[in-house]
Amino acid sequence: MALTKSTKTDRIEVLEMGHLQIRTATIIDEDGIELSRTFQRHVLAPGDDTSGEGQRVQDVAAATWTVDVLADWQAFLAAQEPAS
User: Fold this and answer.
1) What is the DSSP letter of 18?
2) Is the dihedral of CA 14, 69, 77, 48 positive or negative?
3) CA-CA distance, 4 to 60, in Å (whole number)?
4) What confidence tens digit (pLDDT) does each residue in 23-73 have?
């Protein structure tokens, strides 16, 4: 009886403002039969560092975070700052 644990990014969603919502599944198998699967999510904002992410996430970020998306995100952030 061999137990194995693996993780994989099984969902990458692009949200309205260009955020990427990434779901990672942790799978426990015993002799090839799945015993459990749990999920964790995290979100990346446009322009966030993706160097610690898998290649698929990096590719989606590169395709999604265009110059216009990044400019819109920066404008949104600037509008959230309190006026001085």
Assistant:
1) S
2) positive
3) 29
4) 999 999 999 999 999 999 999 999 999 999 999 999 999 999 999 999 999
* Measured CA distances, 38 to 7, 8, 66 (Å): 10, 11, 32
DSSP E strand boundaries for 1-84: 3-14, 20-30, 33-44
Q: Is-contact 26 35, C-beta < 8 A?
A: no
pTM: predicted TM-score of the whole model, two decimal places: 0.85
- Alpha-carbon distance 15 to 7, whole Å? 23
Instruction: Report how far residue 43's alpha carbon sits from residue 46's, in angstroms, rounded to the nearest whole number.
Output: 10
Q: What is the pLDDT of residues 13-24, one digit of tens each?
A: 999 999 999 999
